[in-house]
Amino acid sequence: MRRTLLYALLALAGLVTVLPLLYMVSLSLQTEAETLAADAVLVPDSPQWGNYAELFTRAPFGDFIVNSLVVAGAITLAHLLFDPLVGYVFAKFRFPLRNTLFVALLATLMVPFFVRMIPLYVLMANLGWLNTYQGLITPFLMDAFGIFLMRQFIQPIPDDLIHAARIDGASELRVYRSVILPQTRPALAVLGLFTFVFQWNEFLWPLVATTTPEMRTIPVGLTLFNQEYFTLWHLTAAGSVILFVPTAVLFVLTQRHFVRGIALTGLK
Q1: Where are the beta strands (DSSP E) in 185-245?
Q2: CATH 1.10.3720.10 holds for 61-259
Q3: Transmembrane ranges (predicted)?
């Protein structure tokens, strides 16, 4: 009975969690009249798949999606390239002020982005990078949280493995590529998923750093679309579904590594 009750509670919690998502999908397939009806329509009488096509005719959502993929993809690749490398240096190398520099790096996590946004905007403006991909990507090429995550995961790797590789004549780059990276795949999956989801949903900086619809990302484009067509809730819901799908697909593809990475990171 106790196990049955536990499963029932878990099923109820799962239903409550997924219900808003299911209603969003239902809303995206309704007519405008159904969305404005006094009583909520849970299942549309005739699903309107054309709502998704109409969404692309009313706003350049194709550009929004491409921009989000380019920005989020480039930043994610940069994090997967730089964060493990810096984390490896802090975890396995001895140099003066190592701990002081690491604490200073972690201290940047306590600085709100709003504090850095104005000088960052001025810098991008002086470089002529506003309303460009480099202006959207460059400020986020590395992240203190990603470096911390990779350092904590790399630190327990036995030093004997590294020393053995060096004795065999491996260069530092070969040690990093052949010894360290294969041991950190679960953490890399966690880092990649977190980074992509965060950057895919990022709103404030793309709103500030872009001035034309052709350079806006999908969160910004969807918000401005909703302000212009604030009664077309079925189209706004369709845009929200499009915003959700890539992150869901990425999670499904990396689920095994993601769960293992979370478990191992907690143990370490």
Answers
A1: none
A2: yes
A3: 61-82, 102-124, 136-154, 175-198, 232-253
Global pTM exceeds 0.85: yes
Nearest CA to 56 among 46, 47, 66?
66
Domain boundaries, the chain: 1-48, 61-259
Euclidean distance between CA atoms 49 and 245, whole angstroms: 16
CA 16, CA 12: separation in Å to the nearest integer? 6
Residues 6+ apart with CB under 8 A from 42: 23, 26
CB burial of residue 247 (10 Å; 0-12, 13-18, 19+): middle
Written as six digits, the tokens of 253 are 């593809």
Q: Over 60: is that where the pLDDT of 130 sits?
A: yes
- Spatial contact of 71 and 206, defined as CB atoms under 8 Å apart: yes
